[in-house]
Write a structure and sequence with these properties.
The chain is mainly α. It is built from 17 helices and no strands. Helix 6 runs parallel beside helix 8, helix 8 crosses helix 9 and helix 10 packs antiparallel against helix 11. Pfam families: Fungal_trans.
Length: about 400
């Protein structure tokens, strides 16, 4: 049993770090139930799954609990959620527990595990009809819901929104099909704009769920519009910013697969995304906030900068690699070390290829017999000349296994 003072500390961490982004819990009500549960008035098993999810996720960001105790709590919550008796008669806490498990698994595991958990959570939401709670909610003013019924409908709607948004974003990033249950805009309920859940839903709404795959041209236009819509969004929270960048790079990868000729403004937008990601990742790392996309987003930035393969993109590699090194120095996990090592392999492969190409150019150039009479600057290409205009298609540098398989 965890001491109550540790639980209080972990709830404070959750309220400060996680809740502003994933606002699907009534923290005041949850705190009261926790207090009652820890003082000999046991709540339901489903509530234990929720409490376990909150405590484990908060511990991940604070280190209040030992790894052994944190894992024991995670396994208890998992066993409750997988209990057939709980599945036969699910409650709102059951759905909340699955959303929390999705978050924890994504923060500590591989993408396919998070995709599987997100699919279960959104299936649970659909089976319970939580996504239809919005039909019963009148527009709540700044004072919040006017009745108990409205209150429960609002909370159900928030759970459904977060579950669906996470599922869409995880599915698209991992390249898997989406179970779209359909939701109206969350801000219609008058949510507090100080939380970033609305921004999370806005990102999910940009994802092209039904692209015209039979027509490559229409598909390119569809993805191009999605990228432009995404670049028009602005995020003020560092974690949401990384989600924004990650989605943009996912769309970019798909455009590359379709051999879409990006315009200069698109490339500039991708470069802007990458620069923004580096700054956000460094700030989160300095705060020791181990959000899962700190590593994955910066690694993708390195891959995309190499694939763009322009002087401007290659110039930004040092910043991205430096950020990846800093992240690894701070967190020191197998995953961060693997990402850094792989990124170095890709950069060195690019260097080797360019060195080989330079040798070939030097062999072809030879010695110009008129070099003594023509000014030296004549031999240099204009800095404004875009070589990609003459070098189509651009050959890859051996790392599209990372880029062409969304």
């Amino acid at each position: 049993m965890i001491a109550w003072q540790d639980v209080q500390a972990l709830l404070d961490v959750y309220a400060a770090v996680v809740h502003p982004v994933f606002n699907f819990l009534d923290l005041d009500n949850f705190f009261k139930h926790c207090q009652s549960h820890w003082h000999s008035n046991s709540q339901s098993l489903a509530f234990e799954a929720v409490a376990g999810g909150v405590i484990a996720f908060a511990s991940l960001f604070s280190g209040v609990l030992s790894e052994e105790l944190e894992m024991a709590i995670v396994l208890h919550a998992k066993n409750v959620l997988n209990d057939p008796a709980e599945s036969r008669s699910p409650s709102l806490n059951t759905a909340v527990g699955w959303v929390l498990r999705t978050l924890y698994v994504r923060a500590t595991g591989r993408p396919y595990e998070a995709y599987s958990a997100s699919l279960t959570s959104v299936s649970m939401v659909q089976a319970m009809g939580l996504h239809r709670a919005a039909d019963s909610v009148q527009s709540a003013g700044a004072g919040g819901p006017d009745s108990i019924a409205d209150y429960f409908n609002v909370m159900q709607r928030r759970v459904a929104t977060v579950a669906q948004s996470l599922h869409i974003l995880f599915s698209y990033d991992y390249g898997r099909s989406v179970l779209d249950i359909g939701l109206a805009n969350l801000d219609q309920e008058g949510s507090d704009t100080s939380n970033y859940t609305i921004a999370l839903q806005q990102l999910a709404q940009v994802v092209p769920l039904n692209p015209p795959t039979a027509d490559p041209t229409a598909m390119r236009q569809y993805l191009d519009q999605a990228l432009q819509d995404l670049l028009a969004i602005r995020c003020s929270h560092d974690f949401v910013t990384l989600m924004w960048v990650e989605l943009g790079l996912s769309i970019y990868r798909r455009l590359r697969v379709l051999d879409f000729q990006l315009q200069k403004m698109h490339v500039q937008g991708v470069l802007e995304l990458s620069s923004t990601a580096t700054s956000a990742a460094l700030r989160l790392s300095a705060q020791k906030r181990p959000w899962w996309n700190i590593v994955s987003t910066i690694f993708q930035v390195v891959c995309v900068m190499l694939s763009i393969n322009t002087r401007e993109s290659l110039a930004s590699l040092a910043e991205a690699m430096g950020a990846l090194q800093t992240v690894n120095d701070i967190f020191k996990t197998n995953l961060t070390n693997e990402a850094l090592s792989t990124a170095r392999l890709l950069v060195n492969a690019c260097k080797k290829k360019k060195a080989t190409e330079l040798d070939l150019l030097e062999q072809a150039g030879g010695k110009d017999p008129v070099s003594s009479t023509i000014p030296e600057e004549t031999y240099y290409l204009s800095a404004e000349l875009d070589l990609e205009t003459f070098l189509r298609p651009i050959s890859d540098v051996g790392y599209f296994d990372f880029l062409d398989n969304p």
